[in-house]
Amino acid sequence: MNRSQKTIIVHTPDSRAIAALAFNRATATLRIKFTSGKTWAYPACSRQRFTAFRNARSKGGYYNRNFKPAFTGKGRPVYGAAAL
User: What pLDDT was estimated at residue 1?
Assistant: First the structure.
């Protein structure tokens, strides 16, 4: 399985807060690129949580209500080529 098969990338041009999501199925890591340009990685994210995030009408709203509380203190900044 190559990287493109392991990682699902979703660009979110309609969101004012979230620029893109990338979910690595092999490591269960979700990367979130914010419209500010910063990217954060969150380990141990379930496929179901990623799918709900991807399908949410408001990505920023989903992040604030459902994702951020569950992952506070678990994320880390991502720099360079891995940043989406």
Answer: 44
CA–CA gap between residue 18 and residue 11 (Å, rounded): 9
Which H/E stretch holds residue 53?
A: helix 47-55
Contact by Cβ (8 Å): 33, 18 = yes
β-strand 29-34 against 18-24: which pairing, if any? antiparallel
Domain ranges of the chain: 3-79
pTM (whole model) above 0.90: no
**What are the tens digits of pLDDT across the range 20-49?**
999 999 999 999 999 999 999 999 999 999
- Sequence-distant (6+) residues with CB within 8 A of 40 are 31, 32, 34, 75, 76, 77, 78
**Neighbouring residues of 73: CB distance < 8 A, sequence distance ≥ 6:** none
